[in-house]
Amino acid sequence: MGRLTCKLDSSHTFHPKTNPPEVEGKCNHDSGELYVRKDDDPKVVERRLNEYNAALPVVDFYAKQGRLLTVNGVAGIPDISTVLAYQVGFVLAEVERLHGRDPALIMDKMVQFYKS
Ligand SMILES: [Zn+2]
């Protein structure tokens, strides 16, 4: 928490204690103004942690039923998107199967949608 982000390039980040900029409030690379992103604000982090903890019983509920799908959020966006698309496809295929329809049809549609 407390990370400083450059307004000109968000990949330029600093920290007041562990990686301070050479000039306070200015980016070392391009002199862009540094600011604390809203999601780096300790109050925002605390609120999100509270919301996360409040949701844990719901996660446990579905996990115990074997109906919880998880995604590795540390992977890159293309990998995460692919995993999400397939998981949604599998859920939709299960819905099709429960309604007595051919689940392969929805998977074909998902693959076509994802390729477009
Ligand atoms: Zn910068």
Describe the main β-sheet briefly.
3 strands, antiparallel
Q: How would you state the average pLDDT, rounded?
A: 88
What is the succession of H and E elements? EEEHHH
Overall, the morphology is: elongated
Strand order of the largest sheet: 2-1-3
**Helix fraction?**
40-55%
Protein structure class: mainly alpha
- The residue ranges in which pLDDT falls below 50 over 5 or more consecutive positions are none
- How many discrete domains? 3
Q: Alpha-carbon distance between the termini?
A: 39 Å
Compute the number of strand runs.
3
Strand content: 5-15%
Task: Determine Rg (CA atoms, Å).
Answer: 22 Å
Q: Which molecules are bound besides the chains?
A: zinc ion
How many helices? The count is 3
Structure description:
The structure is a single chain. The protein has helices at 42-64, 77-98, 103-115, and strands at 4-6, 13-14, 34-35. By secondary structure, it is mostly helical. Strands 2-1-3 form a 3-stranded antiparallel beta sheet, with no helix packed on it. A hairpin with a 6-residue loop joins strand 1 (4-6) and strand 2. The chain has 3 domains: 1-36, no CATH class; 43-68, no CATH class; 69-116, no CATH class. 50% of the residues lie in helices and 6% in strands. The protein has 3 helices and 3 strands; from the N terminus they run E-E-E-H-H-H. It is elongated. The model has no long low-confidence stretch (mean pLDDT 88). The site of zinc ion (ZN) has 8 residues, from loops.
